[in-house]
Amino acid sequence: MIGLISATAAGSAGCQRVASAWPGRTRVYEGPVGDAVRRAFAECEQLVCFLATGAVVRLVAPLLIDKASDPGVVCVDEGGRFAVSLVGGHGGGANELAREVGELLGAEPVVTTATDSVGVPGLDTLGFPVEGDVAAVSRAMLDGEPVALKAELAWPLPPLPVAAAAAAAAAAAGQYSSRQYSIRVTDKVVEPSEREVVLRPPSLVVGVGSSKGAPVDEVLGLVHEALRDAGLSAKSVAELATVDAKAGEPGILGAAERLGVTVVTYSAEELAAVDVPNPSDAPLAAVGTPSVAEAAALVRGGELLVPKRKSTAQPAMATCAVVRRAARGRLAVVGLGPGARDLLTPRAKDELRRASVLVGLDQYVDQIRDLLRPGTRILESGLGAEEERARTAVAEARLGQAVALIGSGDAGVYAMASPALAEASDDIDVVGVPGVTAALAAGAILGAPLGHDHVSISLSDLHTPWEVIERRVRAAAEADIVVTFYNPRSRGRDWQLPKALTILAEHRKPTTPVGVVRNASRPDESSRLTTLAGLDPATVDMMTVVTVGNTATREIAGRMVTPRGYRWQEEPK
Ligand code: SAH
Predict the structure, then answer these.
(1) pTM of this prediction?
(2) The last residue of a domain, from among 419, 436, 453
């Protein structure tokens, strides 16, 4: 819950705006502000105070206990110009809240915690449990001191500004000095040394089986024992896995809740098909599979670290087994939009900052280089190396990296998504981020040319035989569909566009509007509205898209407009 506090009329108006935008997430605290702040501080996870920072500092100072548990506090000034993250930037989520409040009120978010302002990801914001001296290691990263990354598990992490090759080699050889700052990625129980933080990736799956009514304590105790004996950290447990029939078993659900993990279940048939070292007859009779714990832990693959064991209670009512799953790399296929920064989506921006490896065409990398986190490994290549880029991106993801593969416009439109996904098997996670494709960017500049059915056709016959392209142009011509030509003309390919226009002209009047947009949303953007008869193909190049209207498309006040349909205006409401 977010507590909202104000003292003045302007502040109260701000409170009301936030409260009405986020009902259910917020509570307005009325009354004297001192009292209101104290109550909100005790009852809420976050506070937004429409008060001067000085006043809020004095009010919350005596209430502060620990940054891990204190609420995050954001102050908004009387003029509503700034949303200041005051306390609990990371742990309390105040930095994020300042951004959200800023967005809502049109205020500038003010974030002063070092890691957020210089592009180093906060170690406590990676989404993994973290142990050790986070403050000291973060400070070392910010100060540019060498920090070694000891990754015992290759897990997809954003780039950490860690000392490169030499330290990594020393790390691999086990040569550390305890004076060295380091980040260790492991699921083993280790005591972080001085100057070290330990990141806990969600690498462990615990398979559990239980008789009806097994107590929570017995299940939980067994899981803890199994992990302890194997030297594994409970903080790396990603999930408990069991058979469908046990989906509602209170002992398993309770243990998962206490561990802070989810329960996943599989059908008995699925589990019966898993090859396990210790099958037995009891579960076969009870739920229809010779193994529950081992099979449920292994069903998605991985390495069996703890074979089935039973609890020590008499009679034993629970079994468990522990598997380390293979790290899954992450491939984000990200469309950058046509060029302008404000047509790059926030989601695309997030994915770029989440990646530790960026793969793309050099000119597209230039478009977003400033957004990348320091330490991002950039694998750029020139025109034409598509297959190789696709293979590289997938290979890096298979190594467990967080990879972003970029393309202009939408990365799935005549771009990298298909060659990459043709390479990828289901051993990596794939995330697609849509982008504004050239046809849409051009359409918005021209007016409303795509108001009815439309297609895109690439005129590049490098990878597609011309007969196929021509057949599609002809079909679009006959079906009276608006056509946008991508890759319309290059130095070596100059007859394809005139040929395609001739085919369209067999079915459309010479006066049919044609929009030509070059470098949509880039600094040297230009556009022209002409007609089928009037278009001079020599003015078209590879930076251009050409949109040809259908038989109903009109030029209206200098804009290209394709009606929604001939009967649109007359349709009953
Ligand atoms: N994935 C891209 C298309 C790649 S094919 C997208 O979704 O937009 C390359 C062709 O796209 C170019 O030859 C040109 O025809 C068109 N194109 C890409 N960006 C453009 C822009 N900003 N302005 C005009 N045309 C563009």
Answers:
(1) 0.72
(2) 436
